[in-house]
Amino acid sequence: MNYPSKILEQAVNAIASLPGIGRKTALRLALHLIQDQNHKSEILVDALVQLNTKIKQCKRCNLVADNDICDICASTSRHKRVICVVENLRDLLAIEDTQQYNGLYHILGGVISPINGIGPENLYIESLIQRVKSEGVEELIMAVSPTIDGETTIFYISKLLADSNVKISTIARGVSFGGELEYADEFTLGRSILSRTPYHQNGSN
Amino acid sequence: MNYPSKILEQAVNAIASLPGIGRKTALRLALHLIQDQNHKSEILVDALVQLNTKIKQCKRCNLVADNDICDICASTSRHKRVICVVENLRDLLAIEDTQQYNGLYHILGGVISPINGIGPENLYIESLIQRVKSEGVEELIMAVSPTIDGETTIFYISKLLADSNVKISTIARGVSFGGELEYADEFTLGRSILSRTPYHQNGSN
Predict the structure, then answer these.
(1) pTM here?
(2) Both A169 and A68 in a single domain?
(3) Which of A32-46, A177-191, B34-48 has the lowest average pLDDT?
(4) Which of B52, B54, B73 to mutate to test the interface with A (most CBs of A within 10 A)?
(5) A14: nearest CA in chain B?
(6) CA dihedral in degrees (B17, B19, B22, B23; nearest 10)?
(7) Domain range spanning residue A87?
(8) Which positions in chain B touch A50 (Cβ < 8 Å)?
(9) Do residue B135 and residue B154 come from a single domain?
(10) Can you tell me the ipTM of this complex?
(11) Angstrom distance (rounded) from CA A175 to CA A192
């Protein structure tokens, strides 16, 4: 497509460089920004500049933060001796949204994946081990994705911590709430039988 | 969803204010921009600032342009006495992409739509009439959407130009190329029968 304006074309190219946004959508967004009367474009530019220049990474858990230490790590109402280990911010936010967890987090930045060239040295594993040792952590909840790479990562971390007293757990895996058994994959279903939990008449497990 | 950072939250809000982008997509894009190593965010900000501050509107046809007169109006190789009247830039680009048209354009900015409170005074109709009179235009091709509002707009413009010699045509309406008759709506099919064209053995109509 030929654009009538170089400036418009540059904007379309820049917007279309974002993941999941094609050139038609980028054009629609650029035209929307040109025509918008509510200074949306200025607000967007301002927010992106702030994101570029002011955002920090928490020195403890690696979460994006406004300060050197994030609000979660700095909170006085959270349980400081439990760390939930996640791959990335999105997983952390998903767990926060459940409102079922009140400890701290540690973002690994991914999982060990030899096929993708990601080794332990590319992840925040070293700093996790340091935290466990220096912060008197009692439990590590490994909330990484239930894949071979995730399992490898859990195994690797557990080996490094073999001589410490920290308890390592993984989040429960099994069939989804509301899911139908016949559509669960055999690996998940097999594991959910092996990891069966006692039934209590008065409540959930 | 609670965001761990005000700066991130502002960026997500600003991105999610764009049409067709929800908060989950906005978060994904914001995190992509934070993590990107290729200065994508700086390039995007720069392109948006240029879009905000430098983009112009062609004084003749209302197309977005880098200069006071757009490249199409300024071109010496285009037919100057034919104007194709379109609602917006996207329709113009769609016509340009067909490579079947080599005249000028005039962007109306919409169509007359009493139900949406859009009257002739909200559109670039006045300037179209001026152009027809001052530029010696021989033909106006009305390429507005085939709706009641579009028809109203064509009728309104044709009335204003009743005393001029300009020839007014509309783009052909009928069943789409490759479309199946049984799925065409009855209005389109009825019209395509009324507007039937003579068949020439040696070429298309």
Answers:
(1) 0.76
(2) yes
(3) A177-191
(4) B52
(5) B44
(6) -10
(7) 57-198
(8) 7, 10-11
(9) yes
(10) 0.78
(11) 7
